[in-house]
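Obj: model holo form, ligand = flavin mononucleotide.
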Amino acid sequence: MKKKPELEEYNIDLSKYNNIIIGSPCWFGTYAPPINTFLLDNKLENKNIYLLVCNGGNLRNTWKNYEEILKGNNIVSKLDLVYPIKNGIEEAKKKTNEWIKNNLK
Ligand SMILES: Cc1cc2nc3c(=O)[nH]c(=O)nc-3n(C[C@H](O)[C@H](O)[C@H](O)COP(=O)(O)O)c2cc1C
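Output (holo structure tokens):
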């Protein structure tokens, strides 16, 4: 899962932002490959980073791999949501909103 799939075209200037929220499912013990492409193509530095990962209860290397690829940034907070659709999307939305409210700098 160190793959680097091609992404659809997007247009974003990350230099304008200090706070960046990255959301991804956990696949095979790490963040999903499109995130790998995005983070390799957009070298982030000195950003406040918020990580949200939905998963099935076994994150394995997800946080460690994020810490590695995001070296040079400040990982402020992490939220993991276990099967957010199966376990109730309203509850997941509530948790996410509270997380943002309580942690965003
Ligand atoms: C290809 C694939 C690999 C997955 N690998 C993991 C894994 O290693 N650990 C884990 O906790 N969940 C794993 N999952 C579960 C997903 O993270 C979970 O389905 C996703 O967070 C979406 O949650 P939802 O079904 O409630 O939308 C995997 C799912 C898929 C499709």
